[in-house]
Amino acid sequence: MKLGMLLLTTFLIIALLAVSAAARVIRVSPTGDDENDGSSWGEAMRTIGAALASASYGDEIWVAAGTYTENITLVNGVPLYGGFAGDETYRDQRDWSANESIIDGGGAGSVVTAPSGVTSDTTIDGFTVKNGTSSGIYCSSSYPIIANNKITNCSAAYGGGIYSSGHAITVTGNTITNCTVTVNGAAIYCGTYSTSTISENTITQNTRIGSGYAVHCTASCTVRNNIISSNTAGGVYFSAACTIAGNMITGNSGTGIYSAYCSSTITSNTIAGNGYSGILCFYPSAGTSVADNIIVSNTGYGISRTGGTPFTPDYNDVWHNTTNYYQVRPGGHSISVDPDFVNGSAGDYHLQSTSPCIDKGNDNASGIPTTDIDGQPRKVDIPDVGDPDVLVDMGADEYYPDYQNEPMVDRGLPTSNVNGVDRCNIRWADVSTTIGYGDDFALWRGPQWVIDKIVVWIVPDILVSPAYFLGDHYSDVKLYLGTGSLALAASGSFSTGSNNTSNGNIAISAVQYGTSPAVDYQCADGTYNQIWKIEFGNLNRTVPANTTAYFGVIGTPRVDRLWFNHATNRTGSGCDGYLRKFDLGDLSGTTSASGAAWFAGKGSDIDVQVYAHPQ
Ligand SMILES: [Ca+2]
Ligand SMILES: [Ca+2]
Ligand SMILES: [Ca+2]
Question: Which among 359, 455, 352, 447 has a CA at the least distance from the CA of 410?
Fold first, then answer.
């Protein structure tokens, strides 16, 4: 659940708790009957209109999957929820993406009308709204919350999907597609006196017959983290002070963003491949700010000003537009290079790890959303990617590795001899079976992180042949982890005759070093030992950002077999040639130990991979 919806839901729960205990849930189902009172699914009503007619402030209406050919009028303080299978006890049990509750306007005017007097105590959430001829949802001097709906095949003169005038509306998490207008606002129109929030919607393939925009605001709006793409129209038009931030505005037939006669804050958008310009500012007012955007491959101007008060767009990547700048002079932090999208021509405008836009925004730019277009925290520094001194990326996407599949720290077993002709394989054990080795790694700037998995390698002092089982020589393995003192993070017991432990979250496999040919660990005397990979999964350890963390791994020998951790002699991020030594008798900290090995001046670090995700 996105944070915005969580807050919204929390707000609604608080609002509902505040009303009288007599508040009812009224259920509606295609198998219901309007003679029923809706008090249970068995007593469901048949039409949403009848449920609304029987509801009063504080009641809420649950609508089961099915088609309702109606034109409904919202009642203030009566939230309307779709997406029920028809057997739920709690609202949170519904799944509106699996259970489609369709309100079909039948081509007879608006599908949903929010009349004057309807406030944010009223929501319409989780419906498919279709076949309206005077907008899908029509708000007249009202300000309901419109969330998680699919609004499709609707039309109007203004606001094909949603029309609002006279008050602010909240529009979040909706998909608006295949709507059409003849005048303005193919998907959404926010008219006079609205100060609306339009966030996290997907607005695609809507059509303005003639020229116009998918989203048209003549009053102050916040348009944040929406996907506005492939519309036969421009992206966003506004003529009052607006914040347009974190949106993907791509592949539309017209201009990405058009501001007229106002100041505007245009931040962290990706505006690419549109049929006309990227950003057009027509007679901008003082205070206009254009920063941290990627504006590329638009047919027309990148950023253009006509008249008004001059401004200096900065920290933008403006590249490969027909004319990058017109009547504006970019600031000194601007760049003009290929942003290295994952696959822009196929509509994937995420950044690759090689993107020059990573960590190139202005961290202090006005209006940067707290999350990116994927719902991931912004202002994060990924190790070894981008600039260590800057956090935020240009554009709507904050770059993250594929952290399910790629380690955030990668000092794992090398795939080749990183040391040229000399060996880079090293292993470490202590003569004491209560002293083990580990190392440290840097956690990253930005949000809080959750460590999912740590991978290490070991090399027991046992010849590779004949084959043996780890459980024959060790009784357990333990991982310790911490940002100061160490704590046990995972452990598993071995049985004899097995390489696996009692802990299903620990995966152990025999591996070989190098690729051509793959070899086992070569000891100083020329013999070979088996290398084992140990993956500690499902760790779920929360760690603060920008902090050094320590780990240690040790197993208990059955007799006198020492536990050797694999290390590698190399340079690179996090490699310092020193290990961390820890004592099972005192986990309050670790001590630094030289990783210097057989070859003079060649230190080593314990091999480790760390998988983590932002929180
Ligand atoms: Ca970044
Ligand atoms: Ca992202
Ligand atoms: Ca180290």
Answer: 455
Residue 580's CB is within 10 A of a number of other CB atoms, namely: 21
Please state, in angstroms and rounded to a whole number, the distance separating the CA atoms of residues 546 and 510: 34
Residue 391, both tokens: 């956090």
**For the CA of 446, the nearest ligand:** 1
User: Concatenated DSSP letters for 214-266?
Assistant: EEEESS-EEEES-EEES-BSEEEEESS-EEEES-EEES-SS-SEEEESS-EEE
Structure-token match 């020229």, residue found: 211
- What 3-state DSSP class applies to 507? strand
Domain segments of the chain as ranges: 409-614
183-217 pLDDT, tens digit each: 999 999 998 776 789 999 999 999 998 889 999 99
Tokens matching residue 528: 């070979």
- CA 333 to centroid of ligand 1, rounded, Å: 16
Ligand 1 midpoint to CA 191 (Å): 36
Query: Looking at residue 574, what is its pLDDT?
Result: 86
Identify the nearest ligand to the CA of 581 by its number: 3
The ligand that comes nearest to the alpha carbon of residue 592 is: 3
Residue 377: strand pairing partners:
371
Task: State the average pLDDT over residues 354-364.
Answer: 97
Q: Which residues neighbour ligand 3 (ion) by CB within 5 Å?
A: 439, 576, 578, 605
For tokens 């804050």, name the residue.
265
Q: What whole-number distance in Å separates Cα of residue 28 and Cα of residue 49?
A: 10
Residues with C-beta atoms within 5 A of ion ligand 2:
372, 374, 376, 397-398
540 contacts 534 by C-beta, under 8 angstroms: no
* Ligand 1 centroid, distance to 293 Cα (angstroms): 14
Closest CA to 151 of 170, 168, 135, 169: 135
Q: Tell me 393's DSSP state.
A: P
How far is the centre of ligand 2, averaged over its atoms, from the C-alpha of 347 (Å)? 15
| Structure-derived torsion over alpha carbons of residues 492, 495, 498, 500, reported in degrees to the nearest 10 | -10
User: For the chain, first and last CA: distance in Å?
Assistant: 13
> Which ligand does the CA of 568 lie closest to?
3
Helix (H, G, I), strand (E, B) or coil at 124: strand
Distance 493 CA to ligand 3 centre (A): 28
- Is the separation of the CB atoms in 535 and 490 below 8 Å? no
DSSP string, 297-340: S-SSEEEEEESS-----BS-EEESSSEEEES----TT-B-S---
What are 155's two structure tokens?
């039309």
Are the beta carbons of 447 and 377 closer than 8 angstroms?
yes
What pLDDT, on a 0 to 100 scale, did the predictor assign at position 382? 86
- Comparing CA positions, the residue from 566, 537, 541, 572 lying closest to residue 383 is 572
CA 393 to centroid of ligand 1, rounded, Å: 5
Q: Is the pLDDT of residue 18 over 70?
A: no
Indicate whether this model's pTM tops 0.90.
Answer: no
H/E stretch holding 4 reads: helix 3-18
Pinpoint the alpha helices (H) of 22-164.
48-54
**Interval 45-68: pLDDT, tens:** 999 999 999 999 999 999 999 999
What residue type is assigned to position 3 of the chain? L
pLDDT confidence of residue 598: 61
Q: How far apart are CA 187 and CA 177, in angstroms?
A: 7
